[in-house]
């Protein structure tokens, strides 16, 4: 089968296409014929670390969807032909998160990912793809959508009457916006692009702030909400945005922290959280149980993921380059 591997010794060619033996499922496992895989910011971080000698030989990408090809022994819940998506953490099925689940993240330091024609996973690590979605759409769900769902809905309790502040228009941001619109929450979106803000409005955003024109966007948030702030803040940026997120959160509100897009740097002053009785919710994706519940919601509300661009398998390096440019609106997908 064809697959991509990370090569820590290839200089600029850190993503290398190879031909490898098709994997066979064992007991309790399923082989999936991958039809699509999607990219996340994490994949850029891993690609860059591969250039420093890490992740050598690893198949990248955590997100993929396709068709069950072969089932191993003792697998009752899946049959050949079933449409499925892979959960980000192979071993986090349900219940609270445990540190022991970290090594089971697909496309990470110890586990191959989905940028291959076939992958083998435990039957318990799969979810049924929503019937109204194509495999290209379903491939966008495992990381970005589950992260937004777990943080904002499962743990954040976002619902009708809430006010969500979304940073940017990437995958997690737009899933958060779509969930807010479906739940009857008000959404504030900040972006550096008026064109992207207009597209966000079409998805349900009601307050739009261009942070290039309005660098003090936290002040604009408070003004737009009559001094109340946002009950939910989807914190995607990291040190470059955190202080403004703290100044934007409402009393009793929640900051859902998922991102490091502006790098690791000085720690923000968290004192305001105490005075406002606000919370920080740290989120790294979610479980199979979260994924399954989210898919029911997507189906009930007929929500379609926003796909920015689809690349053919041979053009996977270009997909990484497009993600790095930051010009995308929604998810970037590789079609197999």
Run of helices and strands: EEEHEEEEHHEHEHEHEHEHEHEHE
* Number of DSSP E strands: 15
Q: What percent of residues adopt helix (DSSP H or I)?
A: 25-40%
Distance between the termini: 11 Å
Stretches where pLDDT is under 50 for at least 5 consecutive residues are none
State Rg. Answer: 20 Å
The number of helical runs is 10
Shape: globular
Sheet with most strands: 7 strands, mixed
Which structural category fits the helices and strands?
A: alpha/beta
The percent range for strand residues is 25-35%
State mean pLDDT (0 to 100 scale): 94
What is shown here, in short?
By secondary structure, the chain is an alpha/beta fold. It has helices at residues 41-50, 135-138, 141-155, 171-183, 194-202, 217-224, 239-248, 271-276, 288-301, 316-325, and strands at residues 2-6, 15-19, 29-38, 63-71, 83-86, 118-122, 126-128, 163-167, 186-191, 207-210, 230-235, 249-257, 279-282, 307-312, 331-335.
Ordered list of secondary-structure elements with their pairings:
Elements: E1 2-6, E2 15-19, E3 29-38, H1 41-50, E4 63-71, E5 83-86, E6 118-122, E7 126-128, H2 135-138, H3 141-155, E8 163-167, H4 171-183, E9 186-191, H5 194-202, E10 207-210, H6 217-224, E11 230-235, H7 239-248, E12 249-257, H8 271-276, E13 279-282, H9 288-301, E14 307-312, H10 316-325, E15 331-335
Parallel strand pairs: 8-9, 8-11, 9-10, 11-12, 12-13, 14-15
Antiparallel strand pairs: 1-2, 3-4, 3-6, 3-15, 4-5, 5-7
Helix pairs in contact: 3-4, 6-7
